[in-house]
Amino acid sequence: MAFGRLERTHGPQPISDINVTPLVDVMLVLVVILIITAPLLASSIRLDLPRADGTQAGEAPRFVSVTLDKAGRAFLNDKPVSGTELAQELAAAARLNADTEIQLRADQGVPYGRVVEVMGAAHKAGLGRIGFVAEPAKP
After folding, report:
1. What are the DSSP calls for 64-122, one per residue?
2. Where are the domains of the chain?
3. How does pLDDT run across 67-112, given as a tens digit for each residue?
């Protein structure tokens, strides 16, 4: 140290690295929101599907979902429809693509006659591919 001369101290240097902690926090919050909301978007109609061995969710290139609830009401792609509206929509789907598959989800309590009515409407519309959706049996 010299007389009359002050030494300069160097202050802290600026950090040139990117702080990713806030980014990770935001991404984790988005993942949690996605995990919570994904099951809610699957289907809004409450059904008690029958259980069967050998059932797997099939990936069809083009399909229409027809649902029959316990009361026998029909839903086309989760929208309620009457019998005539169902027949018209199925005919329109057949005109667009003759290989359209119908995924039929019927509650366990629906009378078999109601299921046959829907199958008849599909065949009359020109759609022959019908897949019955069921849950796997519990071991």
Report:
1. EEEEE-TT--EEETTEEE-HHHHHHHHHHHHHH-TTPEEEEEE-TTS-HHHHHHHHHHH
2. 51-136
3. 999 888 999 988 999 989 999 999 998 888 888 899 999 998 899 8
Residue 63 and residue 102: Cα distance in Å, rounded? 6
CB proximity list for 59: less than 8 A, separation 6 or greater: none
String of DSSP letters for 39-73: HHHH--S-----EETT------SSEEEEEE-TT--
What CATH number matches the domain at 51-136, 2.40.10.350, 3.40.50.970, 3.90.226.10, 3.30.420.270? 3.30.420.270
Q: What is the rounded CA–CA span in Å between residue 100 and residue 4?
A: 93
Check whether 49 has a pLDDT greater than 70: yes
Which residue, 53, 76, 38, 45, is CA-closest to 135? Answer: 53
The pTM for the full model equals 0.56
How far, in Å, CA of 65 to CA of 75, rounded? 8
